[in-house]
Each structure stands twice: as structure tokens, then as C-alpha cells.
Write a structure and sequence with these properties.
Radius of gyration: 15 Å
Number of helices: 2
Strand order of the largest sheet: 1-2-3-4-5-6-7-8
Largest sheet: 8 strands, antiparallel
Strand content: over 45%
Order of helices and strands: HEEEEEEEEH
Helix content: 10-25%
Number of strands: 8
Length: about 130
Amino acid sequence: MCFPKKTFEELIVENIYESKSLDSRTNEFFSNGQLRMIDEYFNDGSIEQTRMYMFENDDLIFAYIAGEGEQNRLYFNNSQLFRWRYTPDINDSASDVFYNDERSNEMFIYWEKFALDEAIRLQSIAIQ
């Protein structure tokens, strides 16, 4: 039998995750005192994005970055990007492009560095 995954909101209601607001645009989610997820609304005037970073044992395992009609899903293992799922049109899931461990792809390396740097920045200011 397969059970549906629960949302973070459902887990918060069940007191499995604790939610804390870092500021008006950034929320953190903790379980047993460990940071599990940070979601952030980012807008610097030139770009508007929704960003989510998920952690396991303080290591980034997943990042979701969406804005301007596109999405990037980034999967990590041992602080290294191993899969990038790019959706250039969020209204068309058939437009998804998958990149697997493409170390010679400049954009693959760009997204790895971007997500790791942002995750580290947000972890460093996380409310403990």
C-alpha cells in the first residue's frame, strides 16, 4: 500500500516540524532541533523567485528555485549536484529537461555553486 507524502504544513500541525520565521520572506523548518528546510521569497527588483532548500544532517539535499515562468530542481549528494531538472515553462511539464552529473556543463556547475552558496548563507543566519 502506498501512502501519500505529507506537506510541511501537515507535519507542522502534527508537531513533527517546527516553523520559525527568519523575516517576512524567509521561513525555516526544524525537526528535533535540526534545520530541515528553508523557504524564501526573493525579490531584488530585477528578479523575483521562490526558493526552497532542504537539508539532511546539515547537508543540502535538494533545492527548488522558480521564477519568471521557469523552475529548477537540484538534487545533491555529499554537497555535489548529481541531477538538475530544468522546466523552462511551468505550464508545460513536457518541457522538462534532465541533466545528470554533467560536470562539463557550465550551467550545471553554475546551479550547483549558486544553490550551495545560498544554502550556506541561509544556514548561517538560521534561528537555532
